[in-house]
Design a protein that fits this description.
heterodimer, A: alpha/beta, Rossmann fold, six-stranded parallel sheet, 12 helices, B: alpha/beta, 2 domains, seven-stranded mixed sheet, 11 helices, 12 strands, about 35% helix
């Protein structure tokens, strides 16, 4: 199998195992507060990030571990952040909802729904003003398509031809509410037409489909032909947050989506026609699992930040 | 030059000195902007750097944040301070907190120029100074321009400041003339002693500075020597200057164009008390009513505003005259 596609597989496994370990650490009390896990949505993170260059940037949400790991945040740095340690990506000051990693182009994970869209537009305008061929992507959920900044950001991006890709991660639920109960349309990408933008719906469980659509949108932006609204249809296996068991979901819905697991879909392609064996895939999983164990242990031994140090990070 | 010319000069000089400075807001690029503060800028620097936005305050403050973390130095014009709450999330949760919650990875050199204040008969949704609404937010600097000189020098400092700043301006001062030192950049967190005096301390911001100076002139004729401090910065607030003055005069009068219940006046009085400053008389406050919004009807708008007369009357009581 190609190196690129084995990397996609491995990255999805990395996200999945990270989320599973994060949940376990929350249940044991090693991580406190709350967390919003993205199991089931890995292909969206990996497929879009794979279409970005290293100097492209993205903003994302409190359900943002997938993009952080997809862009290469080391496990021990991510776990340390979730545990509030000084070796975390944000020095322990952000936590699960705010995994920012500026060196790798993650310019802010936001706990406020919709806040990251105009920020991504601003980043894109900075590139445009300086004549840089860089692109900004904004990841957000279905719920965000109902908040003011979604509309304001798409409108401004359209008017100014900003090099931005808007990625709506539609997992059918805005917190505890079905999209259908809060939104009068099913295909959120259709909202692009209100801003004279292209809107594309893609199967979010298929990393190849996500990557192809993202690549086209990124290249459109980079070529100066403006923004795109990409909607990935996907599903989160877990509830909205740690404290939500997701009982508002119909009984067979979760099972139906698990049968379209993004890791298994790519794995099936790799073993069917790209020269991978089941052992190859199992080895990847085992290697990642060992790395997770080591990283958890490292993070658990890291010190907490001091208040004095935190106080110095308020103002530049 | 006038206060509005001073704003324009500050913008011009900063934009000329630093190509990363950009201006965005509603109508900023058209005919010099709604309050004619931006004359000549789009002609000098182009439509990329001087940009009219749609009516989307929360959105375009967010755009400014994105520009800033990617290396630009944006100035956002908010047409009326009453519209600041429209951008509430991007100010409170984003600008103020972004550097901290990214563990210092982000640098946010955004300046919001917010034009507010009463006397224009603009009614209750177009007359607030707004200076008290964003107090006490760690990470957010607050500045006020009470004179043409400050409109120039404080704005230049705010733009150069690497942290988010709301720089409050007053539309009632736009036509005021004053001596402006072109090239001067104010010191962040330094108040200005607008008039030195020995008998009492008047602390004021924005349009209340000139009314306090007017009162002080009248009082001087009566042998009362008032010190008028223009705070200029609410965050960081110049405690050494303020406390030194109150410590010397032992009489404090706070003059603020906002309800006392929601503003900076209480901070000054609280700090003086907590520092144990021995006052000769209890502090006095002249402010907008706590329980009446700014009314449209002209005589009512006049009635609720502090005036040189009401300031002088309070000062006389402080010195037992």
């Amino acid at each position: 199998m190609s190196l690129e596609r084995s990397r996609w597989y491995e990255t999805m496994v990395r996200i999945r195992l990270f989320e599973e370990r994060a949940m376990a650490l929350f249940m044991s009390g090693a991580i406190q507060g709350t967390t919003h896990l993205c199991d089931g949505q890995e292909a969206v993170s990996v497929g879009v990030v794979a279409a970005l260059r290293d100097d492209d940037v993205l903003t994302n949400t409190y359900r943002g571990h997938g993009e952080a790991i997809a862009r290469g945040m080391p496990f021990e740095v991510a776990f340390a952040e979730l545990m509030g340690r000084s070796t975390g990506c944000c020095g322990g000051l952000g936590g699960s909802m705010h995994l920012a990693d500026f060196e790798r182009g993650n310019i802010g994970a936001n706990a406020i729904v919709g806040a990251g869209l105009p920020i991504a537009v601003g980043a894109a305008l900075a590139f445009q003003l300086r004549g840089e061929r860089r692109v900004a992507a904004a990841f957000f959920g279905d719920g965000a398509t109902n908040i003011g900044t979604f509309h304001e950001a798409l409108n401004m991006a359209a008017v100014w031809h900003a090099p931005v890709v808007f990625v709506a991660v539609n997992n059918l639920y805005g917190e505890y509410s079905r999209v259908r109960d809060t939104t009068p349309i099913d295909d959120l990408a259709a909202r692009s037409s209100a801003y004279a933008l292209p809107g594309v719906v893609v199967d979010g469980q298929d990393v190849d489909a996500v990557h192809a659509a993202a690549k086209e949108a990124v290249e459109r932006a980079r070529a100066g032909r403006g923004p795109t609204l990409l909607e990935a249809k996907t599903y989160r296996y877990r509830g909205h947050s740690r404290s939500d068991p997701g009982r508002y979901r119909p009984a067979d819905e979760l099972e139906a989506w698990r049968r379209r697991d993004p890791i298994e879909i790519l794995g099936g392609r790799l073993t069917a026609g790209e020269g991978a064996t089941p052992d190859d895939l199992a080895n990847i999983r085992a290697r990642v699992a060992a790395e997770i164990d080591a990283a958890t242990s490292t993070a658990e031994q890291a010190p907490f930040p001091t208040l004095a140090h935190a106080a110095r990070l308020v103002y530049a | 030059m006038t206060y509005r010319e001073a704003i324009g000069a500050a913008l011009f000089d900063e934009m000329a000195a630093d190509t990363s400075v950009v201006l965005l807001g509603e109508d900023v690029a058209t005919d010099g902007g709604v309050f004619k503060t931006n004359a000549g800028l789009v002609e000098a620097f182009g439509a990329g750097r001087v940009r009219n936005t749609p009516i989307s305050e929360n959105g375009f403050v967010g755009v400014a944040l994105g520009m800033a973390v990617m290396g630009l130095r944006p100035v956002v014009e908010i047409m009326f301070s009453d519209f600041l709450p429209t951008a509430g999330d991007q100010i409170v949760n984003q600008l103020a907190k972004y550097r901290f919650m990214t563990g210092g990875q982000a640098r946010v050199p955004v300046t919001i120029r917010s034009i507010g204040g009463a006397t224009g008969r603009f009614g209750t949704q177009h007359s607030a100074t707004g200076e008290g609404w964003f107090l006490g937010l760690p990470g957010l600097r607050l500045a006020t321009a009470g004179s043409a000189a400050a409109a120039y020098a404080v704005l230049r400092a705010a733009i150069r400041e690497d942290n988010p700043v709301i720089a409050f301006e007053h539309k009632g001062l736009l036509a005021r003339r004053g001596l402006v030192e072109r090239g001067a950049v104010a010191e962040v967190g330094r108040a200005a002693v607008a008039r030195a005096g020995a008998d009492l301390t008047i602390v004021a911001t924005l349009m209340m500075v000139e009314r306090s100076i007017e009162a002080a002139t009248v009082l001087a004729g009566e042998g009362i020597d008032a010190e008028v401090i223009d705070l200029r910065w609410l965050n960081p607030l110049d405690w050494p200057t303020v406390l030194d003055s109150i410590g010397r005069t032992r009489r404090l009068l706070v003059v603020e164009e906002e309800p006392h219940a929601g503003g900076w006046g209480s901070l000054v009085i609280s700090r003086a008390a907590r520092e144990g400053l021995r006052l000769a008389r209890p502090p006095r406050v002249i402010s907008l009513p706590d329980d009446i919004p700014v009314p449209y009807s002209p005589p009512l708008e006049d009635a609720i505003l502090p005036t040189a007369a009401s300031i002088a009357a309070a000062a006389r009581e402080l010195v037992d005259r």
